Amino acid sequence: MLMQESTTGGFERLQEHVGHGAFHDSGERFDPPKCHHNTRVAIIKRITDWISGLNEDTRRALIMWLYGAAGAGKSAIAQTIAEILDDQHFVLASFFFWRNDSQRGTSKMLVTTLAYQLAVKLPLVFRERLGLAFENDPLITKRSLEAQFKTLVREPLLELLHSGFSTNNHIVVIIDGLDECEDPQVQARIVDLSFSLLHSRDIPLKIFIASRPEINISSSFDRKPFSTLARIALDDGYQSEEDIRHFLADKFNEIKTQHPLRSYIPVGWPAKDSLDTLVRKSSGQFIYASTVVKYVASLHHQPTHRLEVVLGIQLPKAGDSPFAELDALYRHILMGVEDVTLILQVIGCVVLHPLHHYYSSVTFIEAFLSLVPGDVIGCVVLHPLHHYYSSVTFIEAFLSLVPGDVQLLMQNIGSLISVENHPYHPNGAVLTVRLLHASLKDYLLDPSRSKDFFLDRIKMHTHYAELCLAHMMELPVLQSNLSRRPFMGMSHMF
C-alpha cells in the first residue's frame, strides 16, 4: 500500500513538468494546421506505410525525418499523421515545438511530456515505473536529456516488455518543428539521442521528426546509419503545386458559397490567371497559399477587393497587412542568422540580376575599349541562368568572396534559400543559389514589409555599378587600352 502511494506521488510530480500545449490534441493548439482534404496523399501514405512496416525500402528504419523549406506544410503533415494514428488507436506521444511558447520553445519539457503521454496510453506497469523514477530521483528533470530519455522512456518501456506486454504496432513518437527549439546545439542532440534510444532495437518504438533542414539538424542526420533512417524531402517530387492549386480552388469555392458578401462575387471569380499567379507565388510552400486565403476570406471585407490587394492590383489600406504571417516568418529567419548584411547582398544578386541590368553597358564598354565580346562578362564569370537562380561562381567573384563562402552563408538560411546544381543548365554542374519562396523577393523589395531588411533597388544597382567598374579595372586588357587613350572619367562610359 505504501508503494502504491509512493508511485502515485511520483506520477503527480511528473505532471508538474509536462508541456501540455505541445500535445497534438492540446486545447492550446485548437484548430492546428493540417492537410487539406485530398492533398499530400502520396506523402501521407509513405509515412503511414513506414509506421506500419508496409514499405520494403523503409521497413528497417526506426526514425523518419521529414524536412523542407519554411512554410512548406511540415507541421500540417505531422498533425495529420498524429490524427490518423489516434483514429487507428496507435500508442502515440507527440511534441510540437513552437519558439514563442515558454513550454514548447525549449527542450526542458520534451522528455517528460512524451513520457506522460505514453504513461496515459500504456499499461499500468509503465506508469508505475515512471512514478518510481521520480520517487527515486525527485530532481530527474534537472538531469541531462540523455539521463531523462534513459530513465523516463527507455527503462519504463523495457520494464513493460519484461512484464509480458507485446504489440503488433510500433509505439510512435512525433517531434514536430525541431528547428523551433531555441538552441541549435540542443536540436542536434535530440537527433543524436533519438538514435541512441533505438540503437539496440529492443523496444517497439518509432520516431517521426519534422523540421527545416537547418545545418545542425542536417549534419546530425547525415552522420547516422542509412539502415536506421528514412528521409523525406518535402519538394516538388510530391506534386506540391497541384496540391496548392486544389487547396486554393476549394477555399475560393467556400468563399463564393459561404461569405456574407457572396452575392457580390462574380461567377468566374477568381480568374484562371489569378489562380496561376497565386500558385506560382506559393513556390510549393503552403504558407503563402494559406496566408492568402485567410486574408481574402475575412468576413468584414470584400473578397474580390482583397484578392486584388494580394495580386497588387489595388493598394492595401493604411495598417492593412495582407502577408503578416509570411512577413513574420521571413523576419524571424533573417533575424536568426549572422552576417545578415552579406546574406542580403547575395540574395540581391539573385533577385535583382546584376548581369541582366548591366549587359547593355558591358556591350558598350567592350566596343569602346576594343575588347572581344564576352571579355567583360567572362572576367566575373557571369552565367545567364534561369529566373531565381544565380551562379555561385558569379556571386563569389562579383562580391569578391572566397570560393565556398556562399555555401557557408546559405547554410544559415537553408529554409528560404537552396544551393544546388542548376537543373536546366546544359553542363549540369553549375552550382546555383535558388529562392525557395518566390514571395521572398516581394518581401525584400517592399520597405513597408521588410523594414531594415529592405533591398533598395537604387542603392543596390549603384553598388553593382561600382563593382562592375572595379572588376573591369582589374582586366589587363582594359589597363592596356586605357594607357593608350586619353583618360576620361568612367562616369562618361554609361
Structure description:
With 494 residues, the chain is of the alpha/beta class. The chain has 3 domains: 10-233, 3-Layer(aba) Sandwich (Rossmann fold); 242-312, no CATH class; 340-474, no CATH class. The protein has 22 helices and 8 strands. The strands form 2 sheets. The chain has a 5-stranded parallel beta sheet, with helices on both faces. The protein has a 3-stranded antiparallel beta sheet with strand order 6-8-7. Strand 3 (171-176), helix 7 and strand 4 (205-211) form a beta-alpha-beta unit. Helix 6 (145-162) packs parallel to helix 7, helix 7 packs parallel to helix 8 and helix 9 (240-258) packs across helix 10 (272-282). The chain is globular and about 75 Å long. The N and C termini lie far apart (93 Å). Keywords: Repeat. This is Nephrocystin 3-like N-terminal domain-containing protein. Residues 48-212 form the Nephrocystin 3-like N-terminal domain.
